[in-house]
Amino acid sequence: MPAQANPSPKTSAHQNSDVQTIHFHGHKKIYPRWITGYFNNWRIFFVLVTQLFFYAVPWLEINGRQALLFDLVQSKFYIFGLVFLPQDFVYLMALLLVSAFGLFVWTAIGGRLWCGYSCPQTVYTQIFLWIEKWTEGDRAARIKLDQAPLSWHKVGVKTLKHSIWLALSLWTGFTFVAYFTPLAELRSNLAQWSIGPWDTFWILFYALATYGNAGWLREQVCLHMCPYSRFQSTMFDKDTLIISYDRQRGEPRGQRAIGSDYQAKGLGECISCTMCVQVCPVGIDIRDGLQYECIGCTACIDACDQVMDKVGYPPGLIRYTTANALEHPEQPSSWWKKLLRPQVSLFGVVLILVIGASSYSLYLHQPLKAEIARERNTLVRELPSGELENVYRIRLQSTAEQARSFTLSVNGLPGLAIEIDQNEPLSLASTASREFVVRVKTTPKNAKPGANQIRFEITAQDDPSVKISEVATFFAP
Ligand code: SF4
Ligand code: SF4
User: Fold this and answer.
1) What is the distance between the alpha carbons of residues 145 and 282, in angstroms, rounded to a whole number?
2) Local confidence band at 337 (pLDDT 50, 70, 90 cut-offs)
């Protein structure tokens, strides 16, 4: 990102006729002004969608089990009807690859759309700001309240705000832990005040992280703790979507009477009202150029469009655009027409390939696994009947949500016979695993001396499509 000089890290002030604007940088508190508008509606929409998903999903059940549960104790991951085991590590790798390439492609195309609309830090800060506005009022009221001496009113308002923040944070921590400990168990333990030490620790940890990051640290997390804001400049190019102030249109900026001929005075369209600065949650001035501190929240677009509307100028003095479009206003080109540039196409193809391969693999994914090991003590036994016998231990792991019975067969050599020790039924409870001892026999003339390849086939009795086949070795003297 071609970062330009950030405004002074010291306190700075802007003045106009009716509002004194004070914005702070670094560790100083920022009081973003409340803003409504087209893009703000989209942000509200994304806050609602992401939070509805986060808070509601642990309450969903599929086949009588929590729909999304990462059961670390049992090493089982229940994902909307599918059950994954540590052996399915390859899917985690695929997910990481998709995330990495997806982030690269998405950032090259859309810049900081993720930061502005969906990042948990942005989303929770937004929610906490709503609560702050509801309890303390808008920007001017909050500045006044903070500067006011201690009073019962101030203590009451602050206590109310922090109580709601803390309640929401605790609920968020509880919900987070419910992705790892079954919600029903957590609720029952909570009702009896007997939540275990680890669950208690993580609920409080996540709650404090939410309260601290969204309530207190806010933009400091984006500025100093988030690595994404630092390395994303390497993914930007001149056709990446950015939010920018149109200098050619706006400068020279200056105040003027509404309806006056500003061009005759040599002015541009920026009326220096500083509304774009007042609404900025990270306390920067977008007119100073593209800055890494900008989280792409769009508040300045909504603010400026409202100002433009009031003074009768066209909207879009601050807008979504690209560096190329700003540099060449004489060649208006749509951002979406540049989507297939080489850098994006290359990583896009890799992304599509990884998604395609992992989706196909998931489609073929069988809810059954088998590990076959030969009995170590005896390589081969000659039975009184003259037959040769090899013994195997088969560990079956079902990832189905229902109990299942299976049939076992073996092929690869003529005349193979199979027998399960003690004639145990080959059945498993829901998502259970069990070991079976299996004896395989054939006559000596059917096997060559040494190793012979055979194949076990295991099929679910209630669903023949659930079928796996594993290779093993049959030894003959
Ligand atoms: S809101 Fe628009 S008109 Fe007002 S200072 Fe910012 S860029 Fe200029
Ligand atoms: S400059 Fe605009 S888009 Fe960037 S953080 Fe500030 S208000 Fe949001």
Assistant:
1) 21
2) confident
